[in-house]
Amino acid sequence: MKILVCISNVPDTTAKISFTDNDTKFNKTGVQFIIGPYDDYALARAVELKEQHGGTVTVLNVGESESDPQLRKALAIGADDAIRVNTEPTDSYFVAAQIAHIASQNSYDLILMGRESIDFNSGVVHGLVGEMLGIASYSPVMKLDITGNEAKFAREIDGGKEHLSAALPLVLGCQEPIAEWKIPNMRGIMTARTKSLAVVEPVSVDDSTVLEKYALPAPKGSCRMIPAEEAEQLIALLKTEAKVL
Amino acid sequence: MSVLVFVEIDNGSIKKTSREAIYFGARLAEQLSGEAVVLAIGEATEAELEQAGKWGATRVLHVSEEKLAHENSLAYADVLAQAVGATDSKIIVLAKSGLGDAVAARAAAKLKASVVSGVTELPDTQNGFKVVRSIYTGKAFATVEIKSAIKILGIRKNALEVVESEKSAPVEGFTPTLRESDFAAKVLEVEKASTELSLTDADIIVSGGRGMKGPDNWQPLLDLAGALGAATGCSKPVSDLDWRPHHEHIGQTGIKVAPNIYIACGISGAIQHLAGVNGSKCIVVINKDPEAPFFKAADYGIVGDVFDILPRLTRAVEEAR
Ligand SMILES: Cc1cc2nc3c(=O)[nH]c(=O)nc-3n(C[C@H](O)[C@H](O)[C@H](O)COP(=O)(O)OP(=O)(O)OC[C@H]3O[C@@H](n4cnc5c(N)ncnc54)[C@H](O)[C@@H]3O)c2cc1C
């Protein structure tokens, strides 16, 4: 089984978000970058599936060389080889077109990625890639098993889940608890150094969106503390002061 | 020129987030001197669908194929693309949600449209087409210009304050061509708490963290939620520990919610949890630790024991009725 896992290179979940150059660039100073947490679940499940069924896991990122440490980490976790499409990931359509291009040259049985990236939170890349390749896509997938050519999986729906089965190939957007995040071990880190990380150039795609500027939310006003003895007051305050009840 | 609004039907009625999308689409259509047309897939009565007029739609296309009664993003995207052709729409509006994202994505690739998700206000259509969207899980905003001919906007909850009118919108049947390949997946089982209020639609959410100390202690929280007509949520460790079902998990790696009132009970307020609730209008925090970081993000705070405070709040709500 050939699995492609697409990972995003994103600021750590605790990173302080700020901008430079007149609010047109993300300020990377002091920010730690990580494999997108949802992508990390997809990667963990891909490695488990490879252990069960054999085959290969290729990890793919659309990004510049700053993504390399994340690709190396994915190799250390258990991916066999890595591909980086050397370009700035400008928007979902652009990224999806790059992924679809790579995928169309290799016949993957499964294309896994996170349900969304935690920078732009669009949650559309899996659907775009699926449609571009003409194969089915599902998200958010929280359980996945493979038997032969068939995938059995569960999707989260409003207030519950839905269990499905479908023939491969599939594109799936993943989330917990599909697998537990994996931490690379020493052996993994050593072997990752010798695995292939291919850098390829992007295909051209028309600009569909152009970023104009960023902004931060207005600072939160201070919190009104209600003494515990008078907790009941809250209900009246929500009605008359906050006017939300 | 029309704006096509894709709506979600749940148990025969238009979901609240979709009503907001209709209103958003209607206001945008007005800005562009066009009309807002609703596309509704699934079982709903004509009386229910006519209501789309209240939120500004001029007509409703209803697809009532039996095969589409069960949520199917692949087929819905196909129908949406056909409806875009039939109405000559250049803009598609839908509520941001799991289904909305999936439908938007597949339709975007079919129509070579750009999709911008998490839109928080009406676009600036004065010169070009510029939208403001939420990014970094609510920690920032970006203004982006959309260049493609067809544009798809996923609207964030509470983007606009909906104003209703007395109008009603005529409903027409719409019969799409269905593709066999969209139905290749077999639905084996659906587990759904049908009586439960959906977290993404709820106006009030009462949410519990590790401070609730165990799955058997949830009753006081459920009582308050019941009294308020609220949905219930939880922090990640709570669903990881199986104290509560996974679909209640709120935060960076769970559901993002934007209710009018979010009441956090025994949740410390880790940055990853806050990322899922920062769209809320009013945040109430109950925590016994006055230093809990959640208070910094709250509008109202009570330093106290949840097991003392929750029953008293429930009584106060009941008495205020
Ligand atoms: C990549 C990543 C993603 C994550 N995603 C999420 C996410 O999506 N959602 C999420 O929630 N977390 C997420 N987390 C975890 C997050 O960092 C916190 O660990 C988690 O939110 C803490 O949950 P909690 O507040 O319930 O528990 P705790 O941090 O243990 O807090 C319990 C709180 O209860 C209070 N308390 C205890 N007893 C009482 C009492 N009797 N009365 C009143 N108060 C009491 C305590 O003072 C404390 O503040 C993520 C972490 C990482 C690394």
TrEMBL record, chain A:
InterPro entries: ETF_a/b_N, ETF_b, ETF_beta_N, Rossmann-like_a/b/a_fold. Gene3D superfamilies: HUPs. The keyword Zinc does not apply. It comes from the Bacteria. GO terms for molecular function: electron transfer activity. The keyword Transport applies. Belongs to the ETF beta-subunit/FixA family. This is Electron transfer flavoprotein subunit beta. It comes from Arundinibacter roseus.
From TrEMBL, chain B:
Its cofactor is FAD. It comes from the Bacteria. One of its GO terms (biological process) is fatty acid beta-oxidation using acyl-CoA dehydrogenase. Residues 3-192 form the Electron transfer flavoprotein alpha/beta-subunit N-terminal domain. SUPFAM superfamilies: Adenine nucleotide alpha hydrolases-like (SSF52402), DHS-like NAD/FAD-binding domain (SSF52467). Belongs to the ETF alpha-subunit/FixB family. This is Electron transfer flavoprotein subunit alpha/FixB family protein. It comes from Arundinibacter roseus.
